[in-house]
Amino acid sequence: MNVRRSAAAIAAAVTVIGLAAPAAVADPSPAPSASPSPPAGLYGTHDPQYDGVWRQSLALLAQHTVGVRPAAKAVDWLAGQQCADGSFAPFRAEPDQACGAKAMVDTNSTAAAVQALAALGGHDAVTGKAVSWLKSVQNKDGGWPYTPGGPSDTNSTSVVIGALAAAGVKPESVVKDGRSPYEALAGFALPCSADGGGAFAYQPDKKGKLEANADATAAAVVGALGQGLAAKGNSAKDAGGSARCVDAGHPDPAQAAANGAAYLAQAVAKDGHLTSVLPGATDQPDYGNTADAVVALAAQGGAAQAQKPLKWLEQHAEAWADQGGPAAYAQLVFAAHAAGADPRDFGGIDLVERLNATGPAPQATAVGKTAEDTEDAKGTEAAEKSAKDDFPFGVWWIVGVFLVAGIGIGFLLSGRRNKS
């Protein structure tokens, strides 16, 4: 999920664009100024003010998804960003100090952190407090806002559903005034008879009208299926994307997901990618939201449903990921993982190696192998080919990364807010 929103305004912009910024997670948006000295353990080199927790969460979750054991200091950095009440802000420069009443905590950063730390294991106290906080800020419609007290939105509700599921909590059991998160999502779904039927809106406008939003739809499909950022592809033999939207009165989560996937399939049918539409700007490919769409299509209908946008990303997303940094690489890893592609050979590039290079060297690069073991193995292979030189070290420091803020959170934050 790209990308979702920050202290509010920047995060919201991220959500519209669709890169990995707190729901999790945004897209080609202005890059924040480079931080002269990034905090130890943090992934990415740019100012983490608006997306530090989001991009760290995506990076760690993506590494875990492909069997990489992250550096302990990277995991500790993320866990150390939590406030005393269980919430997370996009970034805390001084985590040893109390968050305070003015801390800009949000549901997207919190939910993304839960998904990453729950997957890594050993952080039950942290994730338990975070889930309790998320439950405490649930709205009466069953959904979640980006920041406590605001109106619910599709991206935030979806990324929280992913967090609840990751923490072992059944999303349907978390209700407010008798309404569950799935009922909240249903309220954002457009009927099949509407323009963009089957899609989800980010939020109703001031008049209560729903407008189709591809980023929100990708997030909602995954959320309606009870999955998170690192969603798995549907492997059922009869899995298949819905060819059309099917109205069923009040669609259940499964039907809502199928309808949303049908909308996404149509949206990428012509060019293989989604398009970002920003006022005053020329339309351009939306890489982050396209990656999210791949995850959604694969999760709902199986890997075959996601092949066209997946192949497009393999051919065109390298430059975007280089610029976007850890969250962008993570989104591509999630897309490859869901659609059955090899993230270590994604259009000829190794997404895992490039992601690892944006932060501290992992403890292990594959199950049962430490980073040091992997380097030794590579050195042995090189020695067998040539007796001249030892295999050089420094693999994890090869790639220089420049991050685009924006995410969202987003679910961004990629239309989500963020994406990162």
Keywords:
single chain, 420 residues
Describe the protein's architecture and organization.
- By secondary structure, the chain is mainly alpha-helical.
- It contains 15 helices and four strands.
- It has helices at 9-17, 52-65, 72-79, 107-120, 124-136, 154-166, 181-186, 214-224, 253-268, 287-301, 307-316, 318-324, 326-339, 351-356, 371-385; strands at 274-276, 284-286, 364-366, 369-370.
- A two-stranded antiparallel ribbon has the order 1-2. It has a two-stranded antiparallel ribbon with strand order 3-4.
- β3 (364-366) and β4 form a beta hairpin.
- α4 packs parallel to α6 (154-166).
- The longest helix has 16 residues, at 253-268.
- The radius of gyration is 20 Å and the shape is globular.
- The model is unreliable at 1-20, 22-30 and 367-420 (pLDDT under 50).
Strand order in the sheet with the most strands: 1-2
Mean pLDDT: 83
Low-confidence stretches: 1-20, 22-30, 367-420
Beta content comes to: under 5%
Radius of gyration in whole Å, from Cα?
Answer: 20 Å
Distance between the termini: 11 Å
The SS-based structural class is mainly alpha
Give the number of DSSP strands: 4
Biggest sheet, in brief? 2 strands, antiparallel
SSE diagram, text form:
Layout: H1 9-17, H2 52-65, H3 72-79, H4 107-120, H5 124-136, H6 154-166, H7 181-186, H8 214-224, H9 253-268, E1 274-276, E2 284-286, H10 287-301, H11 307-316, H12 318-324, H13 326-339, H14 351-356, E3 364-366, E4 369-370, H15 371-385
Antiparallel strand pairs: 1-2, 3-4
